[in-house]
């Protein structure tokens, strides 16, 4: 049995668990048990409840890692879970109670996500959001090879608009140590917003100059390094 904490990776909007593949390979080589959660991307409260159930299924310490909207999910999922020893945000939202992902991304100028979105009406009256495939690489993954970015665009998971507008509950980061990786070329969540959130959460910060929002794909070793640091 591994003596390392289990790393639970939570993807964000417009992505799926395969976005963590490079990070998983690196962490596995270092001896970490890894689970890449399937984030439903339906509502913040239900997504957090899904991840919380996964956390509770793991014996021993857990490091929770969230990319983008997944950061809001782990902030809520880790509440009152004593086995969560660290929260790691990869280009991630670190919300305070009542704040939504949409509100935080618009708190500082620089996000160009809105103009790239395509809406799809759902039968229940809700709306799904996609990034238009022809705009995906420039918006989301500018430092990822063209062929790989095209696959990411085609396989992206839509996020319900309601998930991005729902306010956070009281977040776990007030009680759990925080690490934050900030890609300075992020066009989804302005780096200034990420800096603001990280500073507020007293996070240990690593910056990657000019990296895109898909920094977990383009710089998996640096991401894995930060997770391993948080785990020890």
UniProtKB/TrEMBL annotation:
Q: Which GO terms describe its molecular function?
A: catalytic activity
Signal peptide as annotated in the record: none
- Annotated AB hydrolase-1 domain ranges read 7-225
Provide the coiled-coil residue spans.
none
Q: Which residue windows are transmembrane per the record?
A: none
Any Pfam family = Abhydrolase_6
| InterPro entries given in the database record | AB_hydrolase_1, AB_hydrolase_fold, Sec-Metab_Biosynth_Hydrolase
Q: What is this protein called?
A: Pimeloyl-ACP methyl ester carboxylesterase
| Taxonomic placement | Bacteria, Bacillati, Actinomycetota, Actinomycetes, Pseudonocardiales
């Amino acid at each position: 049995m591994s003596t390392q904490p289990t790393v639970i990776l939570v993807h964000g909007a417009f992505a799926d668990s395969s976005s963590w593949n490079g990070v998983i390979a690196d962490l596995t080589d270092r001896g970490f048990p890894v689970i890449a959660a399937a984030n439903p991307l339906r509502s913040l409260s239900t997504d957090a409840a899904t991840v919380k159930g996964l956390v509770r299924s793991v014996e021993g310490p857990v490091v929770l890692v969230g990319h983008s909207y997944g950061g809001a999910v782990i902030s809520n999922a880790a509440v009152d879970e004593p086995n969560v020893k660290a929260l790691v945000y990869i280009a991630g939202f670190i919300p305070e109670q009542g704040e939504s992902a949409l509100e935080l991304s618009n708190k500082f100028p620089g996000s160009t996500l809105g103009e790239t979105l395509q809406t799809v009406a759902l039968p229940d009256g809700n709306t799904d959001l996609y990034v238009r495939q022809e705009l995906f690489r420039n918006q989301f993954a500018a430092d990822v090879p063209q062929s790989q970015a095209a696959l990411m665009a085609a396989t992206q998971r839509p996020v319900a608009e309601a998930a991005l507008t729902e306010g956070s509950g009281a977040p776990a980061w007030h009680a759990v140590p925080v690490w934050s990786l900030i890609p300075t070329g992020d066009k989804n969540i302005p780096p200034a917003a990420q800096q603001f959130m990280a500073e507020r959460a007293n996070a240990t910060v690593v910056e990657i100059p000019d990296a895109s929002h898909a920094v977990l794909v383009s710089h998996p070793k640096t991401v894995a390094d930060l997770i391993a640091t948080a785990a020890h």
